[in-house]
Every structure is written in structure tokens, then in C-alpha cells.
Amino acid sequence: MTVQLTVCENVNARARTVFDTAVAFDARTLIQKTGIMPGIVDVAGHDAPWANVGETRRHTLSDNSSVHEELISITPGRSFAYRLTDFTGPLAPLVRGARADWHFTQIGQEKTKIEWTYAFTPTSAIAEPILWFIVKLFWPKYLKNALERVKEKAESPT
Hints:
Largest sheet: 7 strands, antiparallel
Radius of gyration: 15 Å
Number of strands: 7
Structural class: alpha+beta
């Protein structure tokens, strides 16, 4: 059983440019507080950019919770994925783990589609509907705001 959500954004730049922008983004700038969803305020461990499978970091969030993140796959210019574990704070009783996948698809000469999918594994059948509600209600805007930051940076002249 998983609770899954995908958000997309079209970016007016080549896939490799958008990919390079996304993997190099400072997590504190990328994931900002949105409504009740906390932002990342500190990163311990590997700093951006993501480059090698097995790189890890621990994020501290604005609500004093934290989560461990590990890069589990990367195909330069096309995709990367990471696993989230060891949640603390409000999500700890609800989430056993999560996987996030980013895919970058060239859809025109200078246009790329980003697809960002989160798949959460709930801690129990009782936690699943609560997690579903949180993910479906609060995560779309949370992730969409982050993708808009990637879009803005990737489209801006260097």
C-alpha cells in the first residue's frame, strides 16, 4: 500500500539544463514552508548537487522535524530518485518511508516536462487514510511551488 502523488511543470529550457538546475538546487531554497507544510531550514551531510547513488543528507524542517534522504538512482539529464526514511515530528506516526522520482522529458527544442512523483508507505492501515488526506490536500501546492522555483532558475539567463 502506498499513497502516491505526481506534479508536473513545463520549463522553457533543454532537459539537461533543467536536470542540472534541479540536482544543484539548495534544498533550503527549494523546499519552503507552504501553508502547514514546513520548509527545510538545515541540511547535514552531502550538499548539492546530487551526483552519486548512495549520497545522503538529513534535513531539518521549520517545525523542528527531520528526515533522512538518500539518492538511490541518477541518470544525468533524464532522472533521479531518492528515498526518505527516519521521519520525526508529525509525519513519524504516519510514514514508514517515501520515494521521490524526478523525470525530465524533452518535449520541444527548448521545452522540458518535469514529473515529480512521491510514493509514501504508511506505517499502518490506520495511518493510510490520514496520510492520503495530507498528501492529496497539502502536497500538490507544496511540490508545485518547489517546481516553480526550479522553472524560474532554469529559464533565467546565466
